[in-house]
Amino acid sequence: MADFRSFIDRRRFLSRFIGATAGLVSVVLAAPLVTYFLSPVLRRKKQQVQVSLIDAANVPVGNPLFATYRETVQDGWVTSERSQGVWVVTKDGTSFAVFDPKCTHLECLYAWNPGLKQFQCACHASVFDIDGNVLSGPAPRPLDRIPFEIREGKIVLTVTQT
Amino acid sequence: MMANVKSWLEERLELSRLAWLGDRKQPEGINWWYTLGSATLIVFIVQILTGSFLMFNYSPSPDHAYDSVQYISNTVVFGSFIRSIHHWGSNAMVLLVVLHALRVYFMAAYRYPRELTWVVGVLLLLLVGGMTLTGFLLPWDQKGYWGTTVATAIPGTTPFIGDWIKTLLRGSGSVGAVTLTRFFTLHVVILPGLIVFLLILHLFLMIRQGISAPPGRTELASE
After folding, report:
1. What is the percent of chain A with per-residue pLDDT over 70, rounded to a whole number?
2. Which residues of A touch B46 (CB under 8 A)?
3. ipTM entry
4. Nearest Cβ partner for B68 among A32, A38, A77
5. pTM of the model
């Protein structure tokens, strides 16, 4: 018995045992809590859908058109249908481009200025030309393009949905 | 490294002078029944943690409450696990505070000089009851809705002021949107705040006076 006591005394054994148990319980609780918090970034990849937008013939030449389509959005526990817009551009009536409506700087919505023939962002004064190139302002890259194809005269977008 | 941090803190805060807090003398004859208060405290901390995380994804409105709870259970990673801990934790909480109160009662620990600790403890018991009542409604399911309807109709039978109490609890004529937001506010802010305040008082009294000795054993000399 005396040997046992010299090996590790009761007080120290108990304090270490309790400490280890508390640590184990804390980890078992903390790990799920952290994962729970990280849940939004652990979500699975979004899926791509095709959306028929407008007749290509309806896009005015040299004057970008803000065209909208309806989409169903799953936002957490809220499923809602909302209007989503894109900028459709053609300079000659045969080749088209579709721009994401968010500025590449910090995602504000920009607008077309018909007088100056520029896309202008109201938030931080980024300016883009009709091809989406940055003319001035803090925008780090040209406007984002949305992939599309022209099917039976209609512009059909490929958009990613949550 | 750790030793450096320790000495840095020690030099400024002299934490070693508080070492007695974790090394208090206990009377002879205490047993496992004396751990129920600590157990309640631990479960309460777990409830605060899991409850806070549930709030990340909870929406206290009749349109969204049920769906947001389903979202927690079905979509959020570990959501059902966290929710289950909170659910069973609330059951454990009630069980533990009742057992703790029974222990104090049967060991006659509520008597002089610890009447204040007992009174604060009874208030805490009532607050835990309030937490279970308000928390029960939040999932906004059939059980919560009708449970709350019945639970608020019971004080409604009080003579003369019954209707007044019932309307005050519900915030409107029947259980609805106003009831949900008011129960939510009570559940996550007001009642937990009161519990924390009284809990600190409860612990202060317990540490200040020491744990009572079991009947027939000698009390620790104070100071």
Report:
1. 94
2. 29
3. 0.85
4. A77
5. 0.88
